[in-house]
Design a protein that fits this description.
This protein is an all-alpha fold. Helices cover about 65% and strands about 0% of the residues. The protein contains 4 helices and no strands. Helix 1 (about 10-40) packs antiparallel against helix 2.
């Protein structure tokens, strides 16, 4: 009888496939992050000095809300970028796709959807309780 050893890591070819996915997501995320940061930098330059005080107060309120939303989105994007960069390090170390709790392989479908995942859905659900 031939016993199939349980797969403990993804092959180099599979890791390369994930690397391509992560690189694309990283490029998009960095572009979006830089765009948001430029928007935040320019938000202070939208002067409305020549308009009525009431309009100016309303405008400042919406600018503040927009800035807070942008800052929140930028923070989430930055966290996503860090997660993707960490995933690239795991690919280099050939530890990518391994559940950090169980040590088992995370299904490819999950990694394609959430390439920076370090837990399978089952581990994530158990970890919440």
């Amino acid at each position: 009888m031939i016993y199939m050893a349980e797969k403990t890591r993804y092959s180099d070819e599979e890791l390369q496939e994930f690397k391509v996915i992560i690189d694309e997501k990283l490029q998009t995320a960095r572009h979006d992050y830089n765009s948001m940061m430029r928007q935040l930098m320019n938000a202070d330059n939208n002067d409305v000095d020549d308009t009525s005080p009431t309009y100016k107060a309303l405008e400042e309120g919406s600018v503040t809300q927009s800035k807070e939303e942008l800052m929140s989105q930028a923070a989430r994007l930055q966290k996503f970028i860090v997660g993707l960069e960490a995933a690239l390090v795991r690919i280099q170390n050939k530890t990518y796709g391994i559940d950090r709790i169980t040590g088992e392989l995370i299904p490819k479908e999950r990694l394609r959807a959430v390439p920076h995942a370090t837990l399978s859905v089952q581990s994530k659900m158990k970890n919440k309780h």
